[in-house]
């Protein structure tokens, strides 16, 4: 049985995870917030070990790096029509990952497909 201290600790970790999702969402308007989010992911990653939040951190980190990769590829190929399609697809994928993660976090569910 969990005690009040364990519950408070998990709630604090969940709040940090929620803030990171918010920073990633805000990066759609203000790109620099994604840098703050990824730094927080790596700084707090070890604190999440052994909780369902560990999978959310893995999900967030992968979202950042793969999103950056596809934005880079899209940017390099923008002169070709395919670059614009890559940028649009990666933007939709990025939004999907943030929304799915946020919903799973709200339901206290791990990210199995992380």
Descriptive overview:
This protein has 114 residues and is mostly helical. It has one domain (4-106). It has helices at 4-26, 33-44, 53-76, 81-106. Helix 1 runs antiparallel to helix 4 (81-106). The longest helix has 26 residues, at 81-106.
Order of helices and strands: HHHH
Approximate shape = elongated
Computed over alpha carbons, the radius of gyration is 16 Å
Assembly state of the chains shown: single chain
Mean pLDDT across residues? 93
- Total domains: 1
The major sheet is characterized as:
none
**Strand fraction:** under 5%
Helical fraction equals over 70%
The low-confidence runs, each spanning 5 or more residues with pLDDT under 50, are none
